[in-house]
Amino acid sequence: MAALVVARDILEGRAVPLPDPPGRDAYGLPVVIWAPGDPSSRQGAGEAAMRRA
Question: Which residues form the domain of 9?
């Protein structure tokens, strides 16, 4: 369930990267842990879809 919450927040642009900005590994890939965004900024799925459209 936690992974779904973070995935939704990443999709909606609310997730928080730790560290910020993310570091890079030896291959240039981002090394980051994503945390859920602020719950007070949550909107309904329909509102977020309208915002992206």
Answer: 2-52
Query: Which DSSP symbol is given to 28?
Result: S
Does the bond joining 36 to the residue before it have cis omega, within 30 degrees of 0? no
Q: How many domains does the chain have?
A: 1
Q: What is the CA radius of gyration of the chain?
A: 13
pTM: 0.59
Q: Which of 21, 51, 20, 13 shows the shortest CA–CA distance to 36? A: 13
Show pLDDT as tens, one digit a residue, over the chain (53 residues): 989 999 999 999 999 999 989 999 999 999 999 999 877 766 655 455 445 44
Neighbours of 45 (CB within 10 A): 9
- What does the block give as tokens for 15? 């997730």
